[in-house]
């Protein structure tokens, strides 16, 4: 009898399942596309043409060709059904957008925090450089000191001449 190895280094056997494989985000993407389409002028034009065609046909066509007489009950039912499906799909799309906005906001906050930390670090570094520069001799300071030393040397050189006279 062959021993069965259940270690992590052994891949599992593939099992067939009766459940269908589906992408859980597919319905969300579809609802977003539908919600975007409902918010376009194209949809309004299509819907207007559809309703006007329906009303004109059922008002002016010969009696035996009409399928929805005057109060247009069937048209009302179709529009109600369309609205009852459109509202939840629009809400689903809005929720997905709100989730994306929340993630984006959190990433922006993190980026801003990093920027503030970097700015504070650079400010501290700049302050320390300014303090260190206060201890460094500047060009004017060196010029003055060398000028004073040159005067002292000249005076020292002249002193023996005046002592010699």
Characterization of this structure:
This protein is an all-alpha fold. It has a domain of 111 residues. Helices cover 74% and strands 0% of the residues. The longest helix is centred in the middle third of the chain and has 63 residues. The protein is elongated. The N and C termini lie far apart (125 Å). The mean pLDDT is 87.
Write the layout of secondary structure elements.
Elements lengths: L25 H13 L2 H20 L12 H63 L3 H26 L1
Helix pairs in contact: 1-3
Short account of what is shown:
This protein has 165 residues and is mainly alpha-helical.
Number of separate strands? 0
- Characterize the largest beta sheet: strand count, sense, and whether it forms a barrel: none
Helices, by number, come to 4
Shape label? elongated
Mean pLDDT: 87
Low-confidence stretches at least 5 residues in length (pLDDT < 50)? none
- C-alpha termini separation: 125 Å
Question: What is the percent of helical residues?
Answer: over 70%
Q: Determine the strand fraction and express it as a percent band.
A: under 5%
Structural class: mainly alpha
What value does the Rg take, in angstroms?
Answer: 43 Å
N-to-C series of helices and strands:
HHHH
């Amino acid at each position: 009898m062959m021993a069965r190895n259940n270690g992590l280094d052994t891949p599992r056997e593939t099992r067939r399942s009766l459940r269908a494989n589906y992408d859980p985000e597919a319905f969300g993407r579809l609802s977003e596309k539908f919600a975007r389409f409902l918010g376009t002028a194209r949809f309004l034009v299509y819907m207007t043409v559809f309703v006007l065609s329906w009303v004109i046909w059922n008002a002016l066509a010969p009696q035996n060709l009409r399928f929805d007489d005057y109060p247009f009950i069937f048209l009302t039912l179709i529009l109600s059904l369309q609205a009852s499906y459109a509202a939840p799909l629009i809400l689903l799309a809005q929720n997905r957008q709100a989730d994306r906005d929340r993630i984006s906001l959190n990433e922006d906050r993190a980026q801003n925090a990093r920027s503030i930390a970097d700015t504070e670090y650079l400010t501290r570094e700049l302050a320390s450089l300014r303090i260190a520069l206060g201890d460094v001799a500047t060009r004017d300071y060196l010029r003055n000191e060398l000028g004073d030393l040159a005067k002292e040397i000249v005076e020292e050189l002249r002193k023996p001449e005046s002592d010699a006279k």
